[in-house]
Amino acid sequence: MGKGEPHFVLRPAEMTDISTVAAIAEDCGLSFWSSKAYATELDNPDALFLCAEVEDVVKGFAIGRFILDAVKGDELEVYNIGVSVQLRRRGMGRALLQRFIEKARERGGSAIWLEVRESNLTAIQFYESIGFSKVYDRPSFYLDPTENALVLRLELT
pLDDT tens for residues 64-114? Predict the structure, then answer.
């Protein structure tokens, strides 16, 4: 991080983080997840749910799940990444995604998948800068408003 950038710490999410994570997700305009859905992921052994804190306050998160592929090995699907608006473009989202990549590699994963709204050019450029590439479109995947999703994949092998 550059001079004057906030120092943040990545750590596993905890039950006490759920309300803050939900608020960050809402502020980011992410597809709605209930607090119960986030809590359910905490109890799932295949889930990967991380938080980024600045001065002990959660300011970002990433959530996904490992999916066993009997042929290719584990693959990781990223469900959501959110960073507080005031801290965007300061490396927090990249650090969260890099930690996902590290965890997937540690587990012998072959790839990471995610969907992104086709209109979210900033996110698409961000994912492409890390090495993700478009695999296909999912028509009308998102609601409110209805929009296609681009399915992106990062090969790990």
Answer: 999 876 556 688 999 999 998 887 877 899 999 999 999 888 888 889 999
If you compute the radius of gyration of the chain from its CA atoms, what whole number of angstroms results? 15
Name the nearest CA neighbour of 101 among 156, 150, 42: 156
The structure tokens listed for 146 are: 């209805």
Structure tokens at 125: 């450029």
Q: What is the DSSP string of 41-90?
A: HHT-TTEEEEEEEETTEEEEEEEEEEEEETTTEEEEEEEEEEE-GGGTTS
User: Which CATH number belongs to the domain containing residue 35 in this structure?
Assistant: 3.40.630.30
Domain range for 102 = 9-110
Domain-embedded: residue 43: yes
Contact criterion met (CB below 8 Å) for 65 and 77: yes
Alpha-carbon span 83 to 63, nearest angstrom: 12
Buried b (16+ CB within 10 A) or exposed e, 42-54: eeeeebbbbbbbb
Asked if 87 contacts 54 with a C-beta cutoff of 8 angstroms, the reply is yes
Among 37, 88, 99, 39, which Cα is nearest to 60's?
88
